[in-house]
Amino acid sequence: MGASWRLSSIAATLATALVVAPALANEHQDLGQLQRVVENYVRKEAAGLPGDLSIRVAPLDSRLSLPHCPAPQAFMPPGGRLWGRSAVGIRCLAPVAWTVYASVTVEVSAEYVVTARPMGQGETVSAQDLATMRGDLARLPAGIVVDPQHAVGKQLAMSLGAGQPLRRDMLRRPNVIAQGQGVKLMSQGPGFQVSTEGRALGNAADGQLVQVRAPSGQTISGVARSGGIVEVRY
Q1: pLDDT at 147
Q2: 0.85 surpassed by pTM
Q3: How many domains, in total, are found in the chain?
Q4: How far apart are CA 68 and CA 160, in angstroms?
Q5: H helices of the chain, where?
Q6: Largest CB tally within 10 Å, which of 4, 108, 132, 187?
Q7: Residue 162 belongs to some domain of the structure
């Protein structure tokens, strides 16, 4: 009797599964739910962006007729970014696999750094040379500087007019070694340290590689440091 009861129970379970699966497949997906899935995904992924976030998810085409999905998943397509206007994918893995895309607009209202006066290439930036403006970062070029301290002490890689937004690629660290400068070569290795003089063959900021001609005529590469020092490690 026990075996008969178990077989009857298994048969009933299979019958229920066969009835429920087609029913779920025939039930239509709530498109409003998919919009909420996308918005929640974008808010989570964009939580680290600076400033005030505004997210707009365009309604999906009402003509879409998708089978119901118990657990739709939002994802970012390869090469996409949550910045400005983009597309976010929504996929279902079971019981019926499908993928659709929603149009999303992300605006980030925040302060960004601009030049307070015209500045020439090679000038060192001070706090007085900078001002801030507020706007949608998504409409500005990539790499915009949002913290003035990230620009102070750097040198301009190009000339800029007043009120121009600063990008990271417009800035460079000041040189600590100049071409033709006499430098001290500090060679270090396991159990030894040797110091000798040399002449720099190029300009370099702190931490950059620079080539130095040693008294022997040999060209040596080392790491530039302040105070006219070039470190060589073996």
Answers
A1: 93
A2: no
A3: 3
A4: 56
A5: 2-26, 31-45
A6: 108
A7: yes
